[in-house]
């Protein structure tokens, strides 16, 4: 099994910044992709920023230039630096990884961390 533990959410004013972190632990042989998704009330879960299996980064158009994803492969950790936050960034942010664990490749999700941006 793989556990994802997120931290760093909270309440911030428009224009502020937050940094999210996610650490993966467990019987991990390898991580193929890892990143962040979000889900606002009444909306579908959407990609925010990820490291792909090819090692590239993908960002949602809505966050390009404001959010930066980084990672520490040795610690199986990803971070999301969120700057110039807007009220429409308000959502529950979920960490996701596609990992090879116990001879099985599958997606894992964190419990989610709330990000609220006040206007």
The gyration radius over C-alpha positions equals 14 Å
Order of SSEs, N→C? EEEEEEEEEEE
How would a crystallographer describe the biggest sheet?
7 strands, mixed
Number of strands: 11
Give me the secondary-structure category. Answer: mainly beta
Helix content: under 10%
Task: Indicate the overall shape.
Answer: elongated
The unreliable regions are none
Q: DSSP strand (E) fraction?
A: over 45%
Helix tally equals: 0
Tell me, rounded to a whole number, the average pLDDT. 96
| N- and C-termini, Cα separation | 40 Å
What do these coordinates show?
With 119 residues, this protein is mostly beta strands. 0% of the residues lie in helices and 63% in strands. It contains no helices and eleven strands. Strands 2, 4, 5, 6, 9, 10 and 11 form a seven-stranded mixed beta sheet that branches. Strand 9 and strand 10 form a beta hairpin. The chain is elongated and about 45 Å long. The mean pLDDT is 96.
Q: Which terms would index this structure?
A:
single chain; 119 residues; mainly beta; 7-stranded mixed beta sheet; 4-stranded antiparallel beta sheet; 11 strands
Topology at a glance:
Elements: E1 2-7, E2 10-13, E3 18-26, E4 28-39, E5 46-51, E6 57-59, E7 67-72, E8 77-82, E9 91-101, E10 104-109, E11 113-118
Parallel strand pairs: 2-11
Antiparallel strand pairs: 1-3, 3-8, 4-5, 4-9, 5-6, 7-8, 9-10, 9-11
Give the gist of this structure.
This protein has 119 residues and is mostly beta strands.
């Amino acid at each position: 099994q793989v556990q994802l533990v997120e931290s760093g959410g909270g309440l911030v004013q428009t224009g502020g910044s937050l940094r999210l972190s996610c650490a993966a632990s467990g019987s991990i042989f390898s991580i193929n992709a890892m990143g962040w998704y979000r889900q606002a009330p009444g909306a579908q879960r959407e990609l925010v920023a990820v490291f792909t299996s090819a090692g590239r980064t993908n960002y949602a158009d809505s966050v390009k230039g404001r959010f930066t994803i980084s990672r520490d492969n040795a610690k199986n950790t990803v971070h999301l630096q969120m700057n110039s936050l807007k009220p429409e960034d308000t959502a529950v942010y979920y960490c996701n990884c596609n990992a090879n664990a116990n001879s099985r490749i599958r997606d894992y999700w964190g419990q989610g961390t709330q990000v609220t941006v006040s206007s």
